[in-house]
Write a structure and sequence with these properties.
heterodimer; A: mainly alpha; MetI-like fold; 2 domains; disordered C terminus; B: alpha+beta; Rossmann fold; OB fold (Dihydrolipoamide Acetyltransferase, E2P); 6-stranded mixed sheet; 5-stranded antiparallel sheet; 20 strands
Chain lengths: 279, 356
Amino acid sequence: MNENEVRSSKRAYLAGPYALWIAVFTILPLIVILKYALTGADGHFTLDNMTAIFSPIHVKAMWFSLKIAVGCTVFCILLSYPMVLAMKHLGLGRKSFSLFVIILPMWMNFILRILAWQMILSNNGILNLFLTKLGFEPVQIANTSAAIMIGVVYDYLPYMILPVYTAIMEINEDLIEAAKDLGAGSFTVFRKVIFPLSVPGLLSGTVMVFVPSMTSFVISDILGGGKLQLIGNVIEQEFTTGNNWNMGSGLSVALMVFVLISMAFTVKNEDQGRESVIW
Amino acid sequence: MSDVILQMENIDKSYDGKAILKDFNLEIGRNEFVTLLGPSGCGKSTILRIIGGFVNPDNGRVLFEGEDITHLPPEKRNVNTVFQKYSLFPHMNVAENIAFGLKLKKKSSAYIKDKIKYALKLVNLEGYEGRDTLSLSGGQQQRIAIARAIVNEPQVLLLDEPLGALDLKLRHEMQRELIKIKKEVGITFLYVTHDQEEALMMSDRIIVMNKGIIQQAGDSKSIYDEPQNAFVADFIGESNIIDGIMVKDLLVRIQGVDFACVDTGFGENNPVDVIIRPEDLEIVEADKGYLKGQVISVIFKGAYYEIKVKVDDYEWMIQSVNPAPVGDMVGLTIIPDNIQIMHKPVRADEEVAHDE
């Protein structure tokens, strides 16, 4: 063991409190969930709870969740890049202010934010009030997938902007000048230099947006009016109204496997010696 | 004049109220190797950036082949830059880096392949096409950067302290190679450096700058042998710069002793700066010199000894292949040809630069 290894093994103790925390509140519950998932109501081993994900109603909910998650990720990407590029050349003060504004919603409680959107989007809500005042027809957004989409994009956008921002700010201005020097116009500079070099940020943003929007259920509960079922809502109902913990756990594990597979695919794609995003 | 390829006319540029360039004028001839030489902050890099299109001058024009390109964006200019920090694209391999400009010009892939091969041969890195740029050494990265610029066949190649980050031996090697490359491709080089030795060795013409103003322009020999002011004399090589009085034409008084010299036109009994290169002073027996002083230090510098001799309150620096014993009284002689007379500085930029 060289000196560094000794030192880092000593430092490992510092991770103790967190390790304990994660063991008790993440790993242990996961084991419990796994146990429920693999047993039936009678306590015998079964895979039925997990394969139930392939039943038509669950496939429908999964498909809807996937559409919301992909849509949310795409919208977040489309909103993030122009914003970050606009921030790129601001002075330090304005840059910090912009970041502050982006992070600001995260200072408010998550449920409150979603309830606020409910107030805005509901049929007699603030949006329709404005529209009628201005002489337009009121719109029916509440309890539609559009409302859910607005909710998830609003909620998860900062998680896309921040890593993309970090990645783009790290690009040396010299590289951009070199590209221009070699004949690249602004769009080509973006396409051939800025975007490829921002991919690590894009990937970690994608993970941080795709996973929670795929598995969310509170947003769809409140903004979807309970009629539109994401897979998260289905699982929630198995635990609460259905009181079928085995089925709920089975679906959770199946969903987790699906998310892990899709993320592994995303990360593997670009994992060429550079820092990978989650593992 | 038809063989002028690039002109800068009356360029002014200031940053945050601080003037970097003041009424700057420059003409560069086709196929010339011109070096802008000066201490950091003298405005030399700003000149390159203005020509490259990365900086807009506050006033003045840049003409390329007689055409005004002052406000043309960098990507539309027929010049390419080799940056100090190489600036290779980290997400592309060597061949992709070199092909970057050619692909934008929609050249055929056969043409691009040929060009890459030719350029790699030119910079002595044959067979490096598939290498990852991050795996290359600094010298190799800079060669790739040169290749990447040259394949575009720019009419002027701008080099911004391209060897600044390399160690001494590699720098010397690259200097010789750059001269070779320049001869082979036959394009105009505008080179920026603060290394006077590099400038003297490579350039057809050196432009010495300080505080945004050209101090002297000329070939290496004239810059070294006939510096026009104290700044140039001090910046190019080592110098003894001492106060003198021009008694009359061809006669200058230094430390109370009259010396024959070859300069005329400085009036009579006028104070002047006298410049004598350390290698031009000769140490002789105490009574046989024009000046007499005591040896106060001797430092071995490899090819020569650096000897300091104190005469009255001035310490003369002498470079000699023979050492002299410290403490001895010696005489100093100099031939008239090697005494360089200059006017006293009239502006701050003509004075010897001091570390701030």
